[in-house]
Amino acid sequence: MNPLKPKLFRSTIILMYIIAGFWVLFAAAWLFRDSDYRYFYAVNGLGAAILIALFAHFLNKGRRWAWYATLIFAILNITLTITDQMGWFDLAYLVPSVALLVMTALVRKQPTTTDPQDELLYSVDENDNVLGKVTRREAHSNPNIIQRTVTVFIRDQRNNILITKRSATKDTYANHWGIGLGGHVGYGKKYLETAVQELKEEANISVDPNDLKDLGKILVRLPGESEFWQTYQYHLKNDALSPNSEEIDQIKFVSLKELGEMLINAKVKWKGQVKLLYNILLKNDVSKASHS
Questions:
Q1: Cα angle at 202 between 200 and 207, to 5 degrees?
Q2: 1 band by pLDDT with thresholds 50, 70 and 90
Q3: Which of 90, 193, 286, 291 is an S-S bond match for 235, by CB 3.0 to 4.6 Å?
Q4: Are 126 and 270 contained in the same domain?
Q5: Where are the transmembrane segments (predicted)?
Q6: Is the pTM of the predicted complex or chain greater than 0.85?
């Protein structure tokens, strides 16, 4: 993966919010001008600020239409500026508009993944015996390759279950909901070791491995890949969750009943085969489990 692309994407989002701020200043400046058109230009400036801020928000969410809208906005802004009698004030927002056009074109239609495609993972057989190693890219493009992953069910002090919405820059199931925290087992690492590491990386939770309860392992066949899901359970104590924005867009705690209702809601997009994780929760009756 080219590490410059995620940085360029984030820089583009930041620039868009800066431009939105400039349009707010533009609108405020017109309110203090002695002109019959001051309210007209003030409203237009505020409208432009709201539009570009919304485009930035939805582009960051991975919405394709926002990419097109941003390009059109930048082109129109540049065109209207250069066809008018330009002064220093016009140049002040022409320059960032040109920069926005170039940067938006470079990041293309979708946010670039922040997941390391050359990361080495295990390749295992159907009995989880090691066959060798593969890259993340290879594992995600060949369903005949079985890889290892971990999932940790997180329960709060009220026994609610943590669900997370994956970020727009995930290489699979971007902007989809999942249950708990977790990730791939890197080559040379163990399941439990990875579970502890993922909790720290994704939500800044430091745990003792002995506090993770083993809930079993299943082999899951997805449309483009195959994985062993090793599952654990962890009850939060006084932990403060701090989600990593490159991994997680939103978090929410729900009851087991609420989770079941969400899973059958067609409007909620879920990571593939997530109902298998729900079945594990039901089987282990997590809501009545001890906190040990």
A1: 25
A2: very low
A3: 291
A4: yes
A5: 12-32, 38-58, 65-82, 88-107
A6: no
